Amino acid sequence: MSTELTWSTAFAPASSGNVAIGFDILGFAIDALGDRVTVSRTDRPGVTISGVTGVAGHLPSDPAQNTAGRSLLALQEALQPAFGFDMRIEKGIALGSGLGGSAASAVGAVVAANALLGAPCEKLELLKFAMQGEAVASGSLHVDNIAPSLFGGLVLTVGIDQPRVKRIPVPQCIRAVIVHPHMYLATRQARAILRRSVDLSDFVWQTANLAGFISGCYTDDLDMIRESFQDVVIEPQRQALIPGFQEVRAAAMGAGALGCSISGAGPSLFAWALEPDAQRVLEAMRGQFVSRSIHVDEWVVGLASPGARVVASG
Length: 314
Ligand code: HSE
Description:
This protein is α+β, with helices and mostly antiparallel strands. It has two domains: about 5-165, Ribosomal Protein S5, domain 2 (2-Layer Sandwich), CATH 3.30.230.10; about 175-300, 2-Layer Sandwich (Alpha-Beta Plaits). Helices cover about 35% and strands about 25% of the residues. It is built from ten helices and eleven strands. The protein has helices spanning about 65-80, 100-115, 125-140, 145-150, 185-190, 200-220, 220-225, 235-240, 245-255, 280-290; strands at about 5-15, 25-40, 45-55, 85-90, 155-160, 165-170, 175-180, 260, 270-275, 295-300, 310-314. The strands form two sheets. Strands 1, 2, 3, 4, 5, 6 and 11 form a seven-stranded mixed beta sheet that branches. A four-stranded antiparallel beta sheet has the order 8-9-7-10, covered by helices on one side. A hairpin with a 6-residue loop joins β8 and β9 (about 270-275). α2 packs antiparallel against α3 (about 125-140). The longest helix is centred in the C-terminal third of the chain and has 20 residues, at about 200-220. The protein is globular and about 60 Å long. It binds L-homoserine. L-homoserine binds near residues 24, 142, 144, 145 and 265.
């Protein structure tokens, strides 16, 4: 009797890219929500998508145009398996939310397919396949959602062609607060508005903040994390896309947050706070959106999640 799997389902968590000061290179996983992708063997060569359910909206069913489909095509091209893949995607992450929805589908697809093949690939190889899928959605090869969704926790990625991934330790007392206002904001649009050049003084400030933030994480230095938790390059350009941004951020800081910024390309906002302050920060942020008649979803999560994993197979 063959013990080979015929199908496999993977869960891939949502994620928050940039973390204020690490545009396109730093992100953390949000294990409270995510996408589930089931990949099955088929006799047909290639990749098919037989269903997309959940909070999907309209997603392309042509695999070359779909983030998860494109990732599987990249994996197939590299590994040349003797069978094709059919895929069903259950979206738990709203599109255009700034919570890494396209990355999660891409990561879920490659993790499930890797399990079907007997796990020939390390996570770093899977990262490269998933990056091809993410590029379909956003038009750019950025990794700050793919890497945390795959590896879990707070992740720094250096390099694109030969990416190096470093999971950064976060002081255990810190929680992430995430508030998703019910609006759609296309990543492509939020990238298209960004200036192509940066002032030298802003470059120095942002570099200092990134270095300070990461060293603060490694040394449990909460003051250093708080002081360096400021994006002086991207956030000033994007905040006009999010109604009430300044007030939501001010409310979070007033409630004791260590920092608050845009999650990925927005419109979701996130804050980091000490565990005893997290609920108060959440309520302060929610209150600002609700006072503008904007409904929200909200989560408080730890920062030590395991990343994408196989949750069922047969
Ligand atoms: N780093 C990307 C951006 C994340 O901010 O455009 C998109 O989710």
